Description:
Blueprint lengths: L1 H22 L9 H22 L3 H25 L4 H26 L6 H27 L4 E3 L3 H15 L14 H16 L3 E3 L6 H6 L1 H17 L1 H28 L21
Antiparallel strand pairs: 1-2
Helix pairs in contact: 2-3, 2-4, 3-4, 3-6, 4-5, 4-6, 5-7, 6-10, 9-10
Amino acid sequence: MKTYSTQRGSKHKGRIRRTFARSKPRKPFPRQAVPNFFTLMNLFSGFLSIIHVLEGQLEIAAWLIVIAGAFDALDGFMARLTNTSSEFGIELDSLCDLVSFGVAPAFLLYSFTLHDFNTMGMLLAAIPVLCGAVRLSRFNVEAKVEESPYFSGLPIPVQAIMMAAFFLTFHDNTQIFDVFEYGVNSVVVPAMLTFSVLMISTVAFDKVPKFNRAYMREHRSTVLLFLLYFVLIIVMQEYGLMIAFTIFIIKGLATSAKKVYDAVFGDDDDFDDEDSIVSLDDFSGR
């Protein structure tokens, strides 16, 4: 009798465990949370940058913009690695980028030197934010239509990191700009306006390469160039940032200028509309 009751009790407990196992299945960890985490860390870094500007710690604020750029690169890499690209991720990334690479650098530049112009300085600091919002909105629309190997317009993180790197390089040596009428503003304002125009332009800039065999075989020079950027940044820090992104910008301008030249002066047979980076239509009506 004891053996019978024990077996009966164990069967009853087994049924209970199976019932709970069926009613509460384990949900797999959502893979899209991985790139979204890095996206939110991008936003958090931008927020901290603004806080440090308000507290007068501009150097820390500038490095936080650079850190936000690293998180921005990582979220794209993780999205490709986990194959979790989505419209939600695109929208979230753009919202975070506007804070980290639009508002935060504007606060930094205004506190650094643009405050010398009072109200005009506020307006000047707002220009990259406004152009960055247009740039990000256009990117969101284009990303839903088709994927391109190039960015249309200067990516907003590039202009933000360039301005942060400029501050990190020269904030202790602004006297070298005293030869100009407006001092360091004689360099900051033209650079800021140039980057703002490039953001809303249709000039093509390289995207971060995909590190897989097929892509690396087809775009070997681009992969090597990005590896060079990485080495420069690691070895030379703020100087490396300025050098690497200056090369990045010049390459985009030169490549697009060549495409336009070929379209205008080259043979029609040699010009393929499907492979063009910038078409003549891009310069009209915009």
